[in-house]
Structures are given as C-alpha cells and as structure tokens.
C-alpha cells in the first residue's frame, strides 16, 4: 500500500457557477472514505481484513542520514520485511495470533493481529545498499545514509 497525498478538491481549479458539480466531489469523497473504512474495519464474520494495524513511526534527519524508528512490538526479526528504494522505505510483516483455549472464565484480547505494511517516502535520495537495521525491545531502528550529493552542505554567500 503506497502513501498518496489526499486532495479531495483537486478537480476544482476555480469556481464556475454553471460548471461546478459539488455533488460529484462529495460522492468521490464518500467513495474514498468508504474504501478507508472497508480496509480498517472488521468484515461481516468478525475478522479484520487487510491491515490489522499501522505501526507508529518517527523520523529524524541529520546532515548525513535519516534515522527511522517504527514501533512493532511482539514480532521476531524474521517476521519483518524491509524493502528500500532510493526514495522510500517499505516495512511489512505479520503478527500471528497465538492459539489459546480457556475452559473456565472469560478471555478478552485487545491485541492487533494480522498483516501490516507501511511505506514511508523520503525527502532525499538514500544509499539503499548501506542501510542498517536493528530491532530491539519492539522498536525497529533504521539508519538510512543519504547519497553524497544529497547531503546538505553549508555554502557561504557573499552579499555585494
């Protein structure tokens, strides 16, 4: 699943009273919202479809690299798939549900199980062959070094 910019009124460049169709734009917005809820809400049989959860992320940029942290607790490193291109990072995996039977008493679970995928666009090109990943205490840390020409260099400009 790719992250795309949501622009609900992109088709309206300027208001023309005889050509503007507000209900068509409202229907488009409604279809987009329905698709979003279909992906995130349970299906008719009580199971979640598509994405079970979306891991939280933090990204910090330095002069030489990006540091990306994702919160993915309860996984083993072998359950995490990371794919890096020069301008985006895709992290996916699956949290499998443990089989548990209770004969007496009540059982309630608020854990999210299932597949997840998160694609994060990067504001600069990176060296995809030099990315480092570390997973500890439920946090995935990625170090994404920038391509040499993408590194920001301070240049002094003389005022005349």
Specify the CATH class of the largest domain. Mainly Beta
Mean pLDDT, to the nearest integer, reads: 76
Instruction: Tell me the distance between the termini.
Output: 51 Å
What is the string of helix and strand elements?
HEEEEEEE
Describe the structure.
- It is a single chain.
- The chain has 160 residues and is α+β, with helices and mostly antiparallel strands.
- The protein folds into 2 domains: 20-50; 51-97 and 112-149, Sandwich (Immunoglobulin-like).
- It contains 1 helix and 7 strands, in the order H-E-E-E-E-E-E-E.
- It has one helix at 22-40, and strands spanning 57-61, 65-71, 80-84, 88-95, 114-121, 132-136, 139-145.
- A 4-stranded antiparallel beta sheet has the order 1-2-7-6, with no helix packed on it.
- It starts with 21 loop residues before the first helix and ends in a 15-residue tail after the last strand.
């Amino acid at each position: 699943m790719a992250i795309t910019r949501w622009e609900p009124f992109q088709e309206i460049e300027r208001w023309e009273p005889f050509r503007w169709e507000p209900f068509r734009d409202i229907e488009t917005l409604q279809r987009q919202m329905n698709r979003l809820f279909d992906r995130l809400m349970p299906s008719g049989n009580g199971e979640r479809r598509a994405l079970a959860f979306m891991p939280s992320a933090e990204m910090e940029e330095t002069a030489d690299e990006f540091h990306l942290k994702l919160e993915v607790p309860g996984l083993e490193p072998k359950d995490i798939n990371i794919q890096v291109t020069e301008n985006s990072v895709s992290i996916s995996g699956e949290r499998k549900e443990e089989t548990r039977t209770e004969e007496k008493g009540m059982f309630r679970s608020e854990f999210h199980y299932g597949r997840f995928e998160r694609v994060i666009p990067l504001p600069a090109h990176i060296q995809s062959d030099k990315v480092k990943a570390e997973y500890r205490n439920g946090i995935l840390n990625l170090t994404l070094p920038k391509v040499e020409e993408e590194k920001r260099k301070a240049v002094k400009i003389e005022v005349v």
